[in-house]
Specification:
The protein is of the alpha/beta class. The protein folds into 2 domains: 10-244, Rossmann fold; 246-309, no CATH class. Helix content is 33%, strand content 25%. The protein has 10 helices and 14 strands. It has helices at residues 50-58, 75-80, 101-106, 121-133, 149-163, 179-194, 209-212, 229-232, 235-242, 288-309, and strands spanning 10-19, 25-35, 38-43, 65-70, 73-74, 84-87, 167-171, 198-202, 215-219, 223-228, 247-251, 264-268, 274-277, 280-281. It has a 6-stranded mixed beta sheet with strand order 6-7-8-3-9-10, sandwiched between helices. Strands 2-1-4-5 form a 4-stranded antiparallel beta sheet. Strand 9 and strand 10 form a beta hairpin. The longest helix has 22 residues, at 288-309. It is globular, with a radius of gyration of 23 Å.
């Protein structure tokens, strides 16, 4: 079941605070709102409260203050209606449990079944569609523990698809996967965004965020900034979020042997780095210097070939 058509898809946290029984404040007054048709990165250093915020958004824990709503409905109601799907970190899963790929994905349909959990034709069709979409239909009878890291991640993405959740939360989806799998997941997330779904991705890969996320939430025990990636994902905001855990390198023509006159800044927390150009996230917006350099190098190669032939 999906939100009614007269309820625009939204995810909102308003003044959410979480205090554990030992008095530790894991999250304080976190506030942000996201619309449907969005891929948003949740970015912060380890211990910043990302996992706690995810649990609150999933309805797994009750905030000590504040509210979480999905399409203006309390998160627990949204959870009961199957509006929210979750893709966990691979470390959270017992891979020795004897279950095959098809049955794991079928778990995403439990909310639509009766108490006997007997799949109907519509459930089997949803599972088949999800497995084909992530490219795992041919492995549907394989034991989950026999899969590669990237295949395991895609199984849980398929489970979220079978659930037909409108809000999909992914916890570190690119950890332990190869480049090909990462690209496949990003392509799928873009397709889901085009379908109007709302996707929140917790990630450490700073360099990949501008490539596929249109919004960013920066967190460090509270929400420091939230908004479009081009406005929020800046060196200044990242320094606020990561503090001493973030290293910065400034590279210019004076520090590297290169004829390219541009300057770039590299930000890294020892995961995939983020590269910033003078105009923001590194892109060849002005390619003249780069193209001139390439042309000069090619001309030099041709000249060298001409001399050698003589």
């Amino acid at each position: 079941m999906t939100p009614a058509s007269d309820r625009p898809l939204t995810l909102a946290a308003r003044g959410v605070s979480v205090t554990y029984p030992n008095g530790h404040i894991a999250l304080a007054d976190a506030t942000f709102a996201l619309p449907g048709g969005t891929i948003c990165a949740l970015v912060g250093v380890n211990g910043s409260g990302k996992s706690t915020l995810f649990k609150a958004l999933m309805g797994f824990l009750t905030p000590s203050a504040g509210t979480v709503t999905i399409s203006d409905a309390p998160v627990r109601e949204a959870q009961r209606r199957g509006w929210v799907a979750y893709v966990p970190q691979t470390e959270e899963v017992d891979w020795t449990f004897p279950v095959n790929v098809h049955d794991v994905v079928m778990m995403g349909r439990y909310g639509y079944m009766n108490f006997l959990r007997i799949p109907r034709a519509v459930d089997r069709e949803a599972v088949a569609d999800a497995l084909r979409r992530v490219g795992l239909w041919d492995l549907r009878d394989r034991q989950i523990g026999e899969l590669s890291g990237g295949q395991k991640k895609r199984v849980f993405v398929a489970r979220a698809l079978a659930q037909q959740g409108r809000v999909i939360l992914l916890d570190e989806p690119f950890t332990g996967v190869d480049v090909k799998t990462e690209e496949a997941i990003v392509t799928l997330l873009r397709e889901l965004r085009a379908e109007g779904r709302l996707i929140l991705v917790s990630t450490h890969n700073l360099g990949s965020v501008p490539e596929f996320c249109d919004h960013v939430v920066l967190i460090n025990r509270t929400v420091l900034a939230c908004g479009p990636t081009s406005e929020v994902f800046t060196a200044e905001n990242l320094q606020r979020a990561f503090g001493g855990a973030l290293r910065q390198f400034d590279l210019s023509r004076s520090t590297v042997e290169d004829h390219d006159g541009r300057q770039v800044t590299v930000l890294t927390d020892d995961e995939r780095p983020l590269v910033l150009g003078q105009g923001g996230h590194l892109e060849y917006r002005d390619r003249s210097a780069h193209e001139k350099l390439v042309a000069e190098r090619e001309a030099g190669k041709e000249l060298g070939r001409g001399k050698s032939s003589e």
